[in-house]
């Protein structure tokens, strides 16, 4: 007969200066205590951080969720609450760039975060041998293993991914996470980057997130970021800023964009050879 686990406890964070107003205690082992912004992941993933201190018996409890089970499965801790609604969720503990990252999600949130789409495998714009050049400074680069493309490392004058025809750079794409984008906008660095991108024949900036996530950013005024995005598109209309929702979709969009740029450049060169300058057609 299995034992009923202790409840999931949620309390107020006693630190008034913290931007994460709640503490949650996961009844696993001696108890895992995290700081969190929400009491349950209802509309989006809730990012959590390890609490530096043990759980206090004097904690101000705001919710006590009875549980049916608590199970550790690899990098995830799955909890099943003893109630009919909002009964399942999981804490995912992973590492990125050398530091721990923890987020709390429900099945509904996880499903919404993964768009139910099957990416095509057809060539981009019919280009048979598309080679994508990855800038040597690009960390954790896309591999384009799903797409019909090859990659090679080479220093680009601007952007993270580029396409050449012969020795001519015909298109580049700058990749940003949402946090990188917000930081570059508020510091003013993005203006210089867009100005440089605009000097290339074709350029775009791709964000690995949804536009709606701009209004969920922490430690920054949402309207400021949205205004600056609008101003950037007005000042540099030749460099679209694309919110591609996920890393995989951003990679796919970049593949299609670079393929279209190569095809367009190639057709233009062929037309110029058929109709040289000065021809009346």
Automatic annotation (TrEMBL):
<protein>
    <recommendedName>
        <fullName>ERCC4 domain-containing protein</fullName>
    </recommendedName>
</protein>
<dbReference type="InterPro" id="IPR011335">
    <property type="entry name" value="Restrct_endonuc-II-like"/>
</dbReference>
<feature type="domain" description="ERCC4">
    <location>
        <begin position="131"/>
        <end position="211"/>
    </location>
</feature>
<dbReference type="InterPro" id="IPR006166">
    <property type="entry name" value="ERCC4_domain"/>
</dbReference>
<dbReference type="Pfam" id="PF02732">
    <property type="entry name" value="ERCC4"/>
</dbReference>
